[in-house]
Amino acid sequence: MRDVIVVGGGPVGILLACLLAERGVDVEVLERRTEPSMLARAIGIHPPSMRVLGQAGVAEEVLARAVRIEAGSVQSGGRTLGRLSFTQMTGRFPFVVALPQHETEAVLRARFEKLRPDGLRSGVGVGMLHDRGHHVDLIAEPALETADDASERGGDNGLEIVGSARYVVIADGARGQLRDAVGIASRPLGGGDTYLMADYPDTGEHGTEAVLFFERGGVVESFPLPNGRRRWVAMTPTLMPDASLADLTALVHGRTGVQLPTCDAVPSSFSVRQRLAATMVQGRVLLAGDAAHEISPIGGQGMNLGWLDAVALAPALTHALAQPIEARVTLAGYDRRRRRSARIAARQAGFNMAMGRPARGLRLRLRNVVVRVLATPPLNSLLTRAFTMRWL
Ligand SMILES: Cc1cc2nc3c(=O)[nH]c(=O)nc-3n(C[C@H](O)[C@H](O)[C@H](O)COP(=O)(O)OP(=O)(O)OC[C@H]3O[C@@H](n4cnc5c(N)ncnc54)[C@H](O)[C@@H]3O)c2cc1C
């Protein structure tokens, strides 16, 4: 019987496990994959998250591998509409950190391995949870074996129990199915916009700045990455799963005039979905990260929001374990605060996506006025706070 089992060894599950292990909680992570995912996903790590990574003891390692984005600019029709500098921000991390998600995850996994050797069980998929009142049993996903094989091993009605814990955290991501399996509903918070992206060699033209091109045909975004790479993301009229790199290169050139270098990168297309769970706490089962709230990648908040769940949940769970009588109130506070943050993040992402949609004539001129006003003092400090997730 563990204190806590986390289902899902993505960035949120592993960070939470690190924070719990630091507090002396007996925690284990069950992860379906046997190999890390190398998909191009999150790159932006915001200042509040850097502080959390500091608590987990990995901020220096992340900084050593990453690029620091100290400013961002907004352009339209070849003109600069505004510029944001993050260096005026207070605190230890007056910048946004860019590091591919698979590298961040590798740093976190190495840290967890140090804190709790063998605390990560890979190749274990969890199919169902049974809250028994005083603890939760975790049932394996239906494997290719028969129920008879499982029952011979003494399972639960022929199903294999892969762990038991006083609390279970579902951190199985946006595509995870455990939230639905335990009967927690979720509702859509908008979305539907589609994008194409790829990581190109960096020509150095924009230094370490992030650049947003608000163009007639739709937004193009560009962010520096470590090792001389740069991510380019373009809004597309529809999902383009079969698009080639040449298609993305032509799209960026057509909208912005920027000629990207040729390379062997494979572009990926995605369609934005935003969802929020009806609750993040159900008895001894808790949700964290994308399992609780799926937020548009535009604005780069999803992983960061999940990490802020982790930093709120670690002390709440530690307290619930030590003071069972106060558990319900403590965990209700986690649910309230984190779903509120998710709603703010979803609204902000909705605004970011709306600003990036195709615009012409009066709409385009109005949008450019809004961008100019937002990127000029005193409103630019508000925008900087929003962009760096200071209020989540
Ligand atoms: C194109 C793109 C760009 C993005 N850019 C950014 C960005 O710049 N900044 C940002 O903050 N966010 C960004 N995001 C969002 C970010 O990738 C996610 O928010 C983040 O991965 C969520 O982490 P997680 O740990 O909650 O879930 P995941 O990363 O999805 O991890 C879930 C883990 O659970 C495992 N799992 C699933 N089901 C089971 C099961 N039944 N049993 C056991 N294990 C299971 C999975 O194998 C996986 O390893 C981006 C996303 C995309 C798609």
From TrEMBL:
User: What InterPro entries is this protein classified in?
Assistant: FAD-bd, FAD/NAD-bd_sf, PheA/TfdB_FAD_monoxygenase
Q: Which residues cross the membrane?
A: none
Give GO terms: molecular function aspect only.
Answer: 3-(3-hydroxyphenyl)propionate hydroxylase activity; FAD binding
- Gene Ontology biological process terms, A to Z: 3-(3-hydroxy)phenylpropionate catabolic process
**What organism, scientifically named, is this protein from?**
Cryobacterium lactosi
- Protein name per UniProt: FAD-dependent monooxygenase
Q: Where is the FAD-binding domain?
A: 3-346
Q: Which UniProt keywords apply?
A: Monooxygenase, Oxidoreductase
Keyword Transcription regulation belongs to the record: no
Q: Name one Pfam family in it.
A: FAD_binding_3
